[in-house]
Write a sequence for this structure.
């Protein structure tokens, strides 16, 4: 059945927008339901959130743990992590107009809240700094990758900006530090078929029609190391990391390829960042018609 109710827009709290969950038929009391529905958060933490007024009914009233659930009701909650680690880096804003914000992300920072980071994520930091509750990333880069991230400021512009990426009307260049090998012909174009791998956070190549393509060129060498320019024609998960590894040129600091050295939940080693940088982006703004060209202010260690 179509739900004709209007979405409720709650104010941000410390840069975090409210999330919503709908209650199904036959759900238990509120605390039991939340603990069962989202087991990644412990029951005791849900109890603490309820006690702090971080779960609300649609009418704005604070939800109570022993209240009975009503089928179809919506509960609004704010993501929060106790003892969230602090990243020793800050995001930079390179450009901002009425429609678009361009950020320069450091290594180790997720674009959106995930895993151990909520307040430290790029999106929440920027929402807190700008006060823009509708700010949304227009694309993603890995938490381990540094560099440029584009964010839209208005909901009505989102589809036009997404079309830039979908229709390949945006030109992106990455820099990477990896081994230099005289037996590897560069520049080259590498294409392969990528699918989700094992463990879940890896991507793997399989036989079949290629669904990913990267143009690779050499910028300069320093002993047995080199700085490469990577131009992704497609945007598959971990594409640049997998393609460089397939050429026996694994990117320095990569903890997942060729072998898993440290899982995604392991403590950070800020002294060994992945040497991959979303270095530049060029496109014509679909809203203003303005030609844009942005470059990251960050540098890789060659």
């Amino acid at each position: 059945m179509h739900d004709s109710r209007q979405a409720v827009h709650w104010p941000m709290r410390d840069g975090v927008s409210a999330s919503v969950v709908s209650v199904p038929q036959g759900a238990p009391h509120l605390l039991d339901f939340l603990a069962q529905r989202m087991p990644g958060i412990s029951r005791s933490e849900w109890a603490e959130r309820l006690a702090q007024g971080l779960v609300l009914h649609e009418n704005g009233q604070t939800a109570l743990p022993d209240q009975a659930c009503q089928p179809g009701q919506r509960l609004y909650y704010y993501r929060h992590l106790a003892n969230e680690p602090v990243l020793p880096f800050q995001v930079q804003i390179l450009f901002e107009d009425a429609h678009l914000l361009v950020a320069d992300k450091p290594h180790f920072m997720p674009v959106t809240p995930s895993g151990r980071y909520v307040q430290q994520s790029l999106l929440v930091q920027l929402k807190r700094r700008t006060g823009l509750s509708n700010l949304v990333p227009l694309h993603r880069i890995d938490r381990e990758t540094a560099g440029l991230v584009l964010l839209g400021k208005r909901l009505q512009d989102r589809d036009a900006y997404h079309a830039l990426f979908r229709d390949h009307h945006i030109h992106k260049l990455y820099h990477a530090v990896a081994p230099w090998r005289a037996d590897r012909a560069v520049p080259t174009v590498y294409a392969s078929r990528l699918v989700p791998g094992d463990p879940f956070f890896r991507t793997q190549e399989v036989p079949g029609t290629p669904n990913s393509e990267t143009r690779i060129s050499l910028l300069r060498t320093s002993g047995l190391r080199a700085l490469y320019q990577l131009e992704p024609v497609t945007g598959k998960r971990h594409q640049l990391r997998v393609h460089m590894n397939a050429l026996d040129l694994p990117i320095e600091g990569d903890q997942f390829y060729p072998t898993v050295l440290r899982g995604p939940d392991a403590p950070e080693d800020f002294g060994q960042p992945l040497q991959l940088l979303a270095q530049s982006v060029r496109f014509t703004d679909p809203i203003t018609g303005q030609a844009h060209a942005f470059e990251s202010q960050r540098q890789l260690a060659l």
About this structure: The CA atoms of residues 10 and 60 lie 9 Å apart. The mean pLDDT is 90.
